[in-house]
């Protein structure tokens, strides 16, 4: 019996690492989707309404866990002006639905590191408090723009993605700046160069772009 209990606990601990989950709650008549994206050290929770599209909030940072309790120290919280939260505790539940797909070659946390211009690479310092990060895991993505010192939040969007033949395609499921962008499909060319990800195509506004993202260590 002790071995069985230990095995179940061990499996539950493994199951809450490096996965993408979803669960739903109802608030004020709205069915809210909670998207949980977590690798072995970082967790992001995003809340949104699928129909009609409405962004609610996003928050995340580095975490520790004890049994099924996950304690997160926020790097960002889009709702900070209202709730003042810099930390939270989540309790893993069997109601969480596992969404993870096959791992992709872009899995990881990426920081906006620069752009390609007519003069060549134009790099930016990724060590400062002002960050734009993309978190990709098992077929799902999210970008977040924020400041770790002031807790300013500048925007976020995400959904699921595919990679095939040098093509990276985003399918937007939530977008904090413009709910009407939900449902958009954005194709890009991509190439990995060392720890850099070159990302080329058109932005959600239709502007041409060639971004350089660097793997966050």
Summarize the structure.
The protein is mainly β and 217 residues long. The chain has helices at 2-15, 80-83; strands spanning 19-27, 30-38, 42-49, 54-66, 69-77, 87-91, 97-98, 108-117, 120-123, 130-137, 140-147, 153-164, 167-175, 185-193, 196-202, 208-215.
Structure description:
There is one protein chain. By secondary structure, the protein is mainly beta. It has helices spanning 2-15, 80-83; strands at residues 19-27, 30-38, 42-49, 54-66, 69-77, 87-91, 97-98, 108-117, 120-123, 130-137, 140-147, 153-164, 167-175, 185-193, 196-202, 208-215. The chain has two domains: 2-98; 108-215, Lipocalin (Beta Barrel). A hairpin with a 5-residue loop joins strand 15 (196-202) and strand 16. The longest helix has 14 residues, at 2-15. The radius of gyration is 18 Å and the shape is globular. It starts with a helix and ends with a strand. The model is unreliable at 1-15 (pLDDT under 50).
**How many structural domains in the coordinates?**
2
Can you count the beta strands? 16
Order of helices and strands: HEEEEEHEEEEEEEEEEE
Mean pLDDT across every amino acid position: 90
Per CATH, the class of the largest domain reads: Mainly Beta
Please identify, by name, the CATH architecture of the largest domain: Beta Barrel
Largest sheet, in brief, is: 8 strands, antiparallel, barrel
Silhouette: globular
Which parts are unreliable, with pLDDT below 50 for 5 consecutive residues or more? Answer: 1-15
| The CATH topology of the largest domain | Lipocalin
- Give the spatial strand order of the biggest sheet: 8-10-11-12-13-14-15-16
Structural classification: mainly beta
- What gap, in angstroms, lies between the N and C termini? 42 Å
